[in-house]
């Protein structure tokens, strides 16, 4: 199996409270592919992505990343391969400076000193934040914070980048700058979002998740053109947006 | 979110004091305070020397006198205690402006006043010339258990986030006509504090999740400050050594 590919088979999960969130998900993502995961609130999108790097452990089914099974013995390597950018950058950026935060992941992987610094610098450069190493995360704008959050996982040299609602709380220009960054990354991308035009712009393929199962899987523009399907799963295109005319 | 200050207590450098390594400054401050505390209370001149040295350091560190004065207010509650001592202590009394004051009490008050003021001033010079982040790294270097420095650094990082959250909740409450002026209106504020606690707790869980996702396995990767050279140490320790000499000389003069 090629590096950067994802394979999910029969993934089911129930929270300790007993609430079942996922009811058997099958999904294959090829290396280098960008896939949007769409779905209404509470559909299980975030629960699903937390399985991709083993933060949550599947109740049933399997997840493999580049051929490596997500299981306890492989967690360190799995977490290197799959980088998750969480929805609220304030949750992700917890160190006093941007540099230290970007260094946190690779340092956990055992990189130190001369081995660590170039990784931090390269990751920050890749998101256009090379100048911000000494700054405090809470002094950055929302867009800058989001890009630094992306850098914190890029520094771990991942094969799969998972973005949870990447465009939320961003103004149009910050949203544009983030899209430009995502497009330059030569990685497999799984993007969870409600922002349907954003999904269409960045991902050639989309899957629609609702009630813990995948109900549709196909080219993003075809999926978004199916008004009845979107309506049935509490999704709606922005006013005036025509996926067929883009 | 508010544009907060990461180094709320430090004043902008550069200065010779800012350039020193934080852990050497912590040790020097601690030793200086020890030297001050061991100085005999009868030796007024020795306190003059200590004060002179501190003022010199504050100037060297470019700490504005205004900033120092404002922060010294911290000492006031302790001074109130010191002022009481001559009235409540027993023993032989002296008459000052028609008031009978205890001699022992006066000495004790002077002792608290002088040592407290100098000790606080020394700490203030330290924090004013050391960014808080560096201070934490320095403490880590001095083998303070990483769990303490980690807690302090999380506090530093999230105090702004949580304060901003509290502000938003307050604005939302006031926008709905809440006007907290009477004691029975406290309930809404108490609920706010409760909600804030729950939110902060949940944020803690999300932060932990994000850390785990980046390979956190229970220990923070140490990025402790670089070691100081012998020259650096000996330069920094000149100050507490001088203070210790003053203290010794003061004991000698008392004979």
The separation of the N and C termini of chain B measures 62 Å
Class from helix and strand fractions of chain A: alpha/beta
Largest interface, Cβ cutoff 8 Å: A-B, 31 and 28 residues
Quantity of strands of chain A, as a count: 10
CATH class of one domain in chain A: Alpha Beta
Overall average pLDDT of chain B? 86
- Outline of chain B: flat
What is the fold-level CATH name, i.e. the topology of one domain in chain A? Rossmann fold
Structural class of chain B comes to mainly alpha
Rg of chain B, rounded, reads 24 Å
Q: Main beta sheet of chain A, described?
A: 6 strands, mixed
User: What is the element string of chain A, with H for helices and E for strands?
Assistant: EEEHEEHEHHHHEHEHEEHH
Strand content of chain B: under 5%
Q: What global shape of chain A is seen? A: globular
The main sheet of chain A orders its strands as 6-7-8-3-9-10
Uncertain spans of chain B: 1-7
| Secondary-structure element pattern of chain B, one letter each | HHHHHEEHHHHH
Largest sheet of chain B: 2 strands, antiparallel
CATH architecture title of one domain in chain A: 3-Layer(aba) Sandwich
Amount of helix of chain B: 55-70%
Give descriptors for this structure:
heterodimer; A: 246 residues; alpha/beta; Rossmann fold; six-stranded mixed β-sheet; 10 helices; B: 255 residues; mainly alpha; 2 domains; two-stranded antiparallel sheet; 2 strands; disordered N terminus
What's the short story on this structure?
The complex is a heterodimer of chains A (246) and B (255). Chain A is an alpha/beta fold.
Task: Draw up the topology in text.
The complex is a heterodimer of chains A (246) and B (255).
Chain A: E1 6-14, E2 20-29, E3 34-38, H1 45-52, E4 60-65, E5 68-69, H2 75-81, E6 82-85, H3 89-92, H4 98-108, H5 113-126, H6 142-154, E7 160-164, H7 172-184, E8 188-192, H8 196-202, E9 205-210, E10 213-219, H9 220-225, H10 227-232
Parallel strand pairs in A: 3-8, 3-9, 6-7, 7-8
Antiparallel strand pairs in A: 1-2, 1-4, 4-5, 9-10
Chain B: H1 16-19, H2 22-37, H3 44-60, H4 65-72, H5 76-88, E1 93-96, E2 99-102, H6 103-128, H7 132-141, H8 146-175, H9 186-213, H10 230-254
Antiparallel strand pairs in B: 1-2
Helix pairs in contact in B: 2-6, 2-7, 2-10, 3-6, 3-10, 5-6, 7-8, 8-9
